[in-house]
Amino acid sequence: MEKFLEVNLLYGSEERRKREYLIQVYKKITIFFLLLIPIGIGSNIFLNLRIRYLKSKLSEIEKELEKTAKLLEKREYLLGWKESYEEIFNFFRNIFKRPIKWSIVLERFSELTPEEIWFTKMSMDKNKNLQINACVGFLEDDKKMLNKINEFIENIKKDRFLRRYFKEVALKDVNKKTASQLEMEFKIILKEK
Question: What pLDDT is stored for residue 63 in this prediction?
Answer without folding.
Answer: 92
